[in-house]
Amino acid sequence: xxxxxxxxxxxxxxxxxxxxxxxxxxxxxxxxxxxxxxxxxxxxxxxxxxxxxxxxxxxxxxxxxxxxxxxxxxxxxxxxxxxxxxxxxxxxxxxxxxxxxxxxxxxxxxxxxxxxxxxxxxxxxxxx
Length: 128
Known about the structure:
Blueprint: E1 4-10, E2 13-21, E3 26-28, E4 31-32, H1 33-36, H2 40-52, E5 59-66, H3 70-88, H4 93-98
Parallel strand pairs: 3-5
Antiparallel strand pairs: 1-2, 2-5, 3-4
Helix pairs in contact: 2-3
């Protein structure tokens, strides 16, 4: 089987995913999944597409992650894996879409405006 690649994004994180037949190893930036994401919750988020399709342990994932924080990176990786699984077999798409793994979450951090301490917050108003 050839290597299937896909891209996933979330916030400012970008995941380039390479999927191939294997034993279920997930390597991220040269590290094992358990080393890169020590949190069990984030490990679960990454493995969700495989668990929904009952393919856990069938494919090896090699991913390059860049930008963002840990949660954004995990969700970007989840989207990349889901897209690669659809490219592998188009029949997987309805199941993944129903679970919300095929949707790119468009929410980004709003920029800070001049004359304000944050994006929406204002400095305290003084009448006198």
